TrEMBL record:
Transmembrane segments: none annotated. Catalyzes the hydrolytic dehalogenation of small (S)-2-haloalkanoic acids to yield the corresponding (R)-2-hydroxyalkanoic acids. Gene3D superfamilies: HAD superfamily/HAD-like, Putative phosphatase, domain 2. Its EC number is 3.8.1.2. It catalyses: an (S)-2-haloacid + H2O = a (2R)-2-hydroxycarboxylate + a halide anion + H(+). It holds the Pfam family Hydrolase. It comes from Faunimonas pinastri. Belongs to the HAD-like hydrolase superfamily. S-2-haloalkanoic acid dehalogenase family. This is (S)-2-haloacid dehalogenase. InterPro entries: 2-HAD (IPR006328), HAD-like_sf (IPR036412), HAD-SF_hydro_IA (IPR006439), HAD_sf (IPR023214), PGP-like_dom2 (IPR023198), S-2-haloacid_dehalogenase (IPR051540). One of its GO terms (molecular function) is (S)-2-haloacid dehalogenase activity.
Length: 234
């Protein structure tokens, strides 16, 4: 069955968040290594913060709020506790200004010719809009966590996104660089496409280097995904 909608993870799959955050924080830190350490420590709080919401221990909060709370936690570790509210707000918006991987801009255009393209991210809407505008990316809709009221990999996040598109899950395809995201989507009946991003977490990455499930498509990048979708349609 040809997918009528492609639901894209954004962080990692479409953007090089690690290099982008390190580049933006670098002027406030002594060297590049410290900038990457700052980025990694900030990101390390990402899943635990969302788990507080997924578990029901706190009400739903958009990712910009979680990022800001996590930022406040790590600033003292880097001698930046003196930063005021305006500077902290600007640093939080670093996540709105992430560089796309080199293949993404043209790849999305090719994919949009074949199917509905949808942001399906844990990013809140304002964050996703920032990413789209900064990266000049082509999408038809923004769904995901804030719209569905659930963070991935909760099933409601995938199923409500499909319902909002008025499509059955089998006609939607989750596209991600993360095997756990695809496993959750597949469990909800979606088709799946794996795109490896072996440098998402830097040169020492050990996870998601290869497909670890029976995914519908395994592609080298977004351009390759567009080619493989065309081949399936013929």
């Amino acid at each position: 069955m040809q997918a009528k909608a492609l639901l894209f993870d954004t962080f990692g799959t479409l953007t090089d968040w690690r290099s982008s955050i390190a580049r933006q924080i670098r002027p406030r830190l002594p060297d590049e290594a410290t900038a990457f350490r700052f980025t990694d420590e900030w990101r390390a709080l990402y899943q635990p913060a969302m788990e507080e919401v997924r578990s029901g221990r706190r009400p739903f909060a958009p990712l910009d709020v979680l990022h800001r709370e996590n930022l406040d936690r790590i600033l003292p570790d880097f001698g930046l506790e003196h930063l005021g509210k305006a500077e902290r707000a600007d640093i939080t918006r670093f996540w709105h200004r992430l560089d796309p991987w080199p293949d993404v801009r043209e790849g999305l255009l090719a994919l949009r010719d074949q199917a509905i393209t949808v942001v399906h991210s844990n990013a809140n809407v304002a964050l996703a809009v920032g990413l789209i505008r900064f990266g000049r990316l082509s999408f038809d809709a923004i769904l995901g966590a804030e719209v569905t009221g659930h963070y991935k990999p909760q099933p409601e996040c995938y199923l409500r996104a499909c319902a909002l598109l008025a499509l059955p899950p089998g006609e939607c395809m989750m596209v991600a660089a993360h095997n756990d995201d695809l496993e959750a989507a597949q469990g909800c009946g979606l088709q799946t496409a794996f795109i490896p991003r072996p440098l998402e977490h830097g040169p020492g990455q050990t996870k998601d280097l290869k497909p670890e499930g029976d995914w519908t498509i395994v592609a080298e990048d977004t351009d390759d995904l567009a080619r493989k979708l065309r081949e399936r349609a013929t």
